Every structure is written in structure tokens, then in C-alpha cells.
């Protein structure tokens, strides 16, 4: 006769302290953390390879004619096949005539062909106004688990599929974005850290010129700062398995920036620490070479996040449809106000004394984005959140679908998932969740560029009239 478990009392009643003590194991010292970290590193590599090629590197799948003509190039499948047959110099893909598959690089080449030879009324390449720099988008919230990295990586991938050239910068020492894009980062010298150090070192050099003229002792430059002066942003950029996505990755030691930056600031209070990343991105033509730069930030309003927000044109703030995440996001906005208003106040006090024009931080657009949305359970609360945020929130709520969950288990983005591995409804629903998020982001992007273009035209026209 099978003995049934006693369900008359909850499981946290009648726990035997002696038996509990037996299950504790020995007390833990610091070396046990090292052992746990080693096991996790092995497991992480093991799990990551589920989405990697046998040699340990990530590779991007091929795209079928159905996907290309439905999502990537606005032509009919039959017309694409006719064009391929008539132009044997174009990429022909792999497989039989009726089921050809193409790499993304080949898709981009096909897109270029149609842009030159196709119908004049169709958009084969995404719009970017000539002569204007790339737009920088920061995805930030100090609430962990809000969907920052998921949102950031899928926007980057969607933009790449759309034909834009993308640079992704991972500023989170947990390096989830770096893992998703297959980045290899040995130490902090392959992260943004040397760019921040270089900016401070340059400020020290400028200060020392003033000190020399006034007969004062110079501020010291240690070995780290001297080495950082030789680093270019281009030294840090690595290609990914996406032909039009590049990466500046992160790793654990990047976190030390949060301790080092305030030390540098104490040594030189005139250093504008919040401009370090922006200064690096504005050099060497990076913002002309790329169309979009995405910044994935840590779950904290520290110095790395402040640098990201200062550099950004567009700020996206993901949050879940829960009271706690709504409350946390409200506090995030409050801290943004306090932090940047304080910087403005301090800087402008000095500028007024020096007779210089005042500065202010400004973003093209800021939007909160509801992520991991469950319409069956969260509609009422999401409507309340939408009412309070008003035009600070995107209209579309990013649903959590089976495709998102399964792709995440394989260390992939949903755009990397092969639709043949899912039933049709699951794939289409999951893809739509991020296509609609990207569509709303793209509208913000194009609107920002268009406004800049019109302002430039008006300024140019005004200068012509004055002349």
C-alpha cells in the first residue's frame, strides 16, 4: 500500500532543525566562490555552444526566398527567381531552384541590386538622410530583468535585416549582449574602459598645459592612462556573425570603471566624465560609417549608464507591466532628472562665471516600452501604466511568446531562429512581437533624422539669406 504524503499542513511547518543542519554542508569560505565560478564558466561555455558552430563560434543561418520576399526585400518570390535567372552574376543561393537559401551578406547584395535596378516607387534600402550622423540609442533602466538586453539585441538585429549598418556597445559587465553576438573579450582593455581612460588622460594633458603656463606642478599620468592615450575606438570594434553588426564587447572587469571614474574625477574636477563615450563616438568618422549605434547599459544609474545616456539621441526604457516595475521606472526617471539637472547646474555655474554659453542635455525622443507582456493577465495594469506615462510610452506592448523563450534557451535572438524549427503560428507570432517593436522604433528614428534634416535646411537657408 502506497503511503500518501501528509498535505494537512504547509511545507514550512514542522521542519526538523537537526535534519536541516545535516543538509547545510560545511561552512563556505571565499575559495568556494572561485570553485563555483569555475563550474559556471564551464557550464556557460557548454550552454553557449548550443547556439554556436562546432568550432565554438556563432554563425548566422541562411534565409529562404519566402523570408526574403516577405520580410527583407519588397518583391514577389516569382520575380526574384526571374531576376536571379536573368543575372547569373548575382548570388544564386544554395539548394534547389524552388527552395534556395541565402546568407545575409548575399541578401544585402541582392538589396543593392534592386535599389539600383528595381522599381522607383519601392524602398529597397532603409532611409537615412545624406550628410547626417548615425543615431545613438541607449536602452536603459536600473531595474534588472526589465528586458533591456533582449530589446536592444532584437532592435539591432531587426535594423541589420532592414539594411542598416549597426554598431552595438555592451556597457554591462555581465556581458549578456556580448554573448548573444558571439563576442570574445579577454579583459577590460577590449571594452569601453580604455576610451573612458583616454578621455580623462586627454583632460589631464590639457590641464597640465595650463599648469605649466602658471608654473604649477603637473598632474601625473600613470601607466594605464599613458597606454589608454594610444587606444582608438577602432581597436576595440570586432565583427560578429552578422555581416552588418559590429560590437564593442564587455566583460566582468569593466565593472571597475565604476570605481575608477570617481577617483579620476576627484583628481580633476573640471573633467566632464559624462562626455567620455560621446567624445569617442564622435571621433574618427564612426558616426558616418555606421547608421545606428545601440548602447546596452547596466541595471544601475552608475557612471557607465550616465555616459550612455549623455551620448544617446534616443532613450528607450523597457519595463514589465507590474506595479513594482512601474514604481521602479518612475524612480529611474526621478534619478535621471536629479542626476542630469545637477550636472547642468554645476556646469552652467562655471560657464556663467567664464562668460560661456550654458549647456543642457537633450534627447530627440524618450519612450518607455512594455516588455514580456501577457495580454491575458496584464491588460488592465498595462492600460493604467499607459495612462500615467502618456506620450512617454510606445503604443505597442512587446509580447512574450514561445519563440522568444525557445530562442533564448539556445542563446539566440528570435531573428536567428530557423522558422522550420517551430510551427508556423508560433514563428509568425514571435516574429511579429519584435517586428512591431522595431517598426515603432524605426518611426522614432526616421522622425528624428527628418527633423534634423529640416532644421539643417532651415539653418542653411537662413545663412544664405544673411549672406
From TrEMBL:
Pfam family, one: AAA_31
Listed InterPro entries: AAA_dom, DNA_Partitioning_ATPase, P-loop_NTPase
Domain (AAA): residue spans on this chain: 135-324
Highest rank taxon of the organism: Bacteria
Protein name: ATPase
Organism: Limimaricola cinnabarinus
Amino acid at each position: 500500500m502506497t503511503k500518501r504524503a501528509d498535505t494537512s499542513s504547509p511545507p514550512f511547518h514542522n521542519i526538523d532543525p537537526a535534519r536541516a543542519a545535516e543538509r547545510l554542508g560545511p561552512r563556505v569560505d571565499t575559495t568556494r566562490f572561485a570553485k563555483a565560478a569555475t563550474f559556471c564558466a564551464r557550464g556557460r561555455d557548454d550552454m553557449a555552444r548550443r547556439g554556436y558552430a562546432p568550432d565554438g563560434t556563432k554563425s548566422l543561418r541562411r534565409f529562404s526566398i519566402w523570408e526574403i520576399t516577405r520580410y527583407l526585400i519588397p518583391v514577389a518570390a516569382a520575380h526574384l527567381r526571374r531576376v536571379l535567372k536573368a543575372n547569373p552574376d548575382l548570388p544564386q543561393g544554395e539548394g534547389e531552384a524552388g527552395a534556395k537559401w541565402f546568407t545575409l551578406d548575399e541578401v544585402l547584395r541582392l538589396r543593392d541590386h534592386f535599389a539600383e535596378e528595381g522599381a522607383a516607387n519601392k524602398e529597397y534600402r532603409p532611409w537615412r538622410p545624406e550628410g547626417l550622423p548615425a543615431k545613438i540609442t541607449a536602452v536603459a533602466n536600473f531595474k534588472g530583468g526589465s528586458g533591456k538586453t533582449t530589446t536592444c539585441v532584437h532592435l539591432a538585429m531587426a535594423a541589420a535585416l532592414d539594411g542598416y549598418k549597426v554598431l552595438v556597445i555592451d556597457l554591462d559587465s555581465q556581458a549578456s549582449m556580448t554573448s548573444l553576438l558571439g563576442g570574445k573579450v579577454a579583459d577590460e582593455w577590449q571594452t569601453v574602459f580604455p576610451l573612458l581612460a583616454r578621455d580623462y588622460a586627454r583632460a589631464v594633458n590639457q590641464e597640465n598645459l595650463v599648469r605649466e603656463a602658471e608654473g604649477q606642478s603637473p598632474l601625473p599620468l600613470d601607466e594605464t592612462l599613458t597606454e589608454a592615450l594610444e587606444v582608438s575606438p577602432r581597436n576595440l570594434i570586432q565583427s560578429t556573425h552578422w555581416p552588418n553588426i559590429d560590437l564593442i564587447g564587455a566583460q566582468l572587469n569593466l565593472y571597475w570603471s565604476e570605481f575608477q571614474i570617481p577617483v579620476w574625477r576627484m583628481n580633476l574636477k573640471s573633467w566632464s566624465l559624462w562626455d567620455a563615450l560621446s567624445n569617442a563616438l564622435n571621433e574618427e568618422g564612426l558616426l558616418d560609417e555606421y547608421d545606428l549605434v545601440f548602447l546596452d547599459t547596466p541595471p544601475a544609474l552608475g557612471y557607465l549608464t550616465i555616459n550612455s545616456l549623455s551620448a544617446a539621441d534616443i532613450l528607450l526604457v523597457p519595463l514589465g507591466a507590474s506595479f513594482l516595475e512601474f514604481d521602479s521606472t518612475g524612480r529611474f526617471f526621478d534619478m535621471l532628472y536629479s542626476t542630469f539637472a545637477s550636472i547642468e547646474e554645476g556646469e552652467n555655474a562655471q560657464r556663467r562665471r567664464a562668460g560661456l554659453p550654458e549647456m543642457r542635455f537633450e534627447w530627440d525622443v524618450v519612450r518607455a516600452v512594455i516588455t514580456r507582456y501577457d495580454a491575458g493577465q496584464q491588460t488592465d495594469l498595462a492600460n493604467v501604466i499607459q495612462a500615467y506615462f502618456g506620450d512617454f510610452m510606445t503604443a505597442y506592448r512587446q509580447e512574450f511568446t514561445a519563440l522568444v523563450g525557445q530562442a533564448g534557451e539556445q542563446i539566440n535572438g528570435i531573428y536567428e531562429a530557423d522558422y522550420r524549427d517551430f510551427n508556423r503560428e508560433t514563428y509568425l507570432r514571435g516574429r511579429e512581437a519584435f517586428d512591431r517593436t522595431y517598426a515603432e522604433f524605426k518611426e522614432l528614428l526616421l522622425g528624428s533624422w527628418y527633423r534634423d534634416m529640416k532644421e539643417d535646411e532651415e539653418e542653411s537657408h537662413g545663412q544664405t539669406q544673411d549672406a
